[in-house]
Specification:
With 600 residues, the protein is mainly alpha-helical. Strand 1 and strand 2 form a beta hairpin. It is built from 24 helices and 6 strands. 59% of the residues lie in helices and 3% in strands. The strands form 3 sheets. The chain has a two-stranded antiparallel sheet.
């Protein structure tokens, strides 16, 4: 039935593009509008088919499901590329604002556009699926048995043995060298497709998704980084001193970069797991969310139910019954699955789901609130036309859930949902803010550099032979970290991060870490909150929820600054909300770092 719809829609496109096209006549505004409407019909049908194929592959990783997913992705990519090239026929045609925006978005629809030549889409889809699956099924030998990334992350989180951390870090990074030739070929193919659509390269295509010129967007991210960089350097300086005190000069020097495997996370992108190492003297928190969840009998499903309750308290409708039947919430023991947490909108209507191998931890408690944010956003814009069913920009999609998680991680909220009996006093503000900064602030340079590296790869500035050297140059420049040992000549360490083989643009996460605080500041102001920003929870604030939902319902129907203004009253991304949230901690860190040689 899906392919019958596609055939019918394809016929409609042929009608919409002729006979003027055949005669070489100037196309009209009416023809442009008809073309867009027919294209949206095709995209809706192909999108659902591809989503179902991808869901099956992600939940049952076999050669057959990979083949099905690859084929669906190839056919979908081929369709979108064809439509994007046809959309170029209407360049220069004066059309209404809605049609003009849809024509633009159509050209930006694909992350990796294939060239319009036989075999290009199939090869690109095959490589994309292969890279994704290589990552998702990756295992390495540790203590005589193969372990997965989930197992390795547990070691990185809990171990304080530098030799063990180094072994596990290097073990996981050993799964990715095999990806390098496939990734290099994928870059070549994607660039060929991007140039066919009129972009300099695929990086320029990605940067064109923000209602500004690609170079202007790159400059905008530089501006935002300069707003938060001093605070990051303050945090880095403090953490390095604590690691030096813990491990000694032979493991972590008092000056220079930090060893990447000592930070509690496989990619050193979040440092919250080493709070026990860097906590202030006498700064032990009066509670552990991990322990509270266990003591109160939480399991994975109850965590998701609690996340739903948060959104319901804002006035949002409950999740559909199908969500609970179709989501993957616990890692199955009988098959390989993609465990990386994700939210799915299968039919662009009501078939929303999450897929994550949930653990009963404070980290996953926040992740649940984050992933559900995607689902509620997807449902909010479902009544928009197909090409407007998306975030105002991709940073919004990530920030929606992170905004919810900012409330969900406060002691205020934990008391509201019964996980705490009382809210700790002001004496626990610095420990709380330090824990938050170890995740939120520590992430910012990593959130920026992943795509900085890919922009350089796509532009040809970085070649396959220098992939790894360029990766570590950026990681040291922005994060101030280095690998735990000399890297092998064939290393492809970018491939050890899901979003690189998964071909997911990453700047969205950097933006989300700014937007979430803008949303939080605006919401707390609307709720009449008078206390410190870091103690504010908007749980139960239905008026805030109604205004927030009104922003989400707009989808991608207008430039994102206008959408941002509907909720925050601001038209520019602004990291001052980050500074306001963490101001007490930044002052405290400055005092703690007195006498240290900060920087690297």
């Amino acid at each position: 039935m899906k392919w019958q719809l596609l055939a019918a829609a394809a016929a409609a496109v042929l009608l919409a593009t002729g006979p003027a096209a055949a005669q070489g006549a100037q196309p009209t505004a009416a023809e442009a509008k008809a073309f867009v409407e027919a294209a949206e019909t095709q995209l809706a049908a192909a999108g659902e088919y591809a989503a179902r194929a991808a869901w099956v592959r992600a939940n049952f990783i076999t050669e057959d499901t990979q083949w099905l997913d690859s084929r669906a992705a190839a056919e979908g990519a081929q369709l979108v590329t064809k439509l994007a090239l046809q959309a170029a026929r209407f360049n220069g045609v004066v059309v209404d604002g809605v049609t003009a925006r849809k024509l633009k978005l159509l050209k930006l629809y694909l992350t990796l556009p294939p060239a319009e030549r036989p075999g290009a889409a199939a090869e690109l889809a095959f490589l994309s699926t292969k890279l994704n699956s290589t990552y998702s099924t990756g295992k390495f030998a540790y203590k005589g048995k193969p372990i997965t990334l989930n197992d390795a992350e547990d070691v990185m989180r809990l171990s304080r043995d530098p030799a063990e951390l180094k072994a596990v870090w290097e073990g996981w990074h050993s799964i990715s060298p095999v990806m390098r030739p496939d990734y290099a070929r994928l870059v070549t193919l994607a660039n060929e497709g991007s140039k066919g659509l009129g972009f300099a390269d695929t990086g320029a295509l990605w940067r064109s998704n923000y209602d500004m010129e690609p170079d202007a967007f790159a400059a905008e991210t530089d501006r935002l980084w300069k707003q938060v960089e001093p605070f990051y350097r303050n945090l880095h300086c403090y953490v390095r001193a604590k690691l030096n005190a813990k491990y000694g000069d032979a493991v972590q020097a008092r000056t220079g970069p930090i060893r990447a495997d000592l930070l509690g996370n496989m990619w050193a992108q979040q440092w919250g797991h080493i709070y026990d190492v860097v906590q202030p003297t006498g700064g032990t928190a009066s509670y552990s969310l991990d322990k509270q969840l266990t003591v109160q009998g939480y399991d994975a499903v109850k965590m998701v139910k609690t996340g739903e309750k948060f959104y319901s308290s804002l006035g949002f409708a409950p999740l559909p019954e199908t969500f609970w039947r179709r989501s993957l919430i616990v890692r199955p023991q009988d098959r390989e699955v993609v465990c990386h947490a994700s939210a799915w909108d299968v039919d662009s209507k009501d078939d929303i789901r999450i897929k994550m191998c949930t653990k009963v931890t404070g980290e996953d408690f926040a992740t649940v609130h984050h992933e559900l944010g995607h689902n509620y956003y997807q449902r909010a814009y479902k009544n928009q036309p197909t090409l407007f069913r998306g975030a105002a920009n991709d940073g919004f999609h990530e920030a929606i859930g992170d905004f919810a998680a900012l409330s969900a991680t406060t002691p205020t909220y934990l008391q509201q949902v019964g996980l705490l009996q009382s809210v700790p006093g002001a004496e626990e503000d610095i420990p709380f803010l330090l824990k938050m900064a170890l995740d939120k602030i520590a992430f910012l340079p990593f959130g920026l550099l992943v795509d900085r590296w890919r922009w350089q790869v796509f532009s040809g500035q970085v070649t396959p032979e220098t992939y790894n050297d360029a990766w570590w140059k950026l990681r040291t420049q922005y994060q101030g970290i280095v690998p735990p040992g000399r890297r092998p000549a064939d290393a492809f360490d970018p491939g050890a991060k899901y979003h690189v083989p998964g071909n997911t643009p990453y700047t969205r996460y950097f933006l989300a870490h700014i937007y979430q605080f803008q949303f939080h500041r605006a919401a707390c102001k609307q709720a009449g909150w008078k206390g410190p920003l870091h103690r504010c929870s908007v749980y139960g604030q239905k008026e805030v929820g109604a205004k927030f939902n009104a922003m989400m319902e707009l989808g991608q129907s207008q430039p994102w600054p206008q959408t941002l203004a509907t909720f925050t009253g601001e038209t520019r991304t602004d990291a001052s909300a980050v500074a306001a949230y963490f101001h007490p901690l930044d002052k405290w860190l400055t005092v703690q770092n007195k006498g240290q040689r900060c920087g690297w």
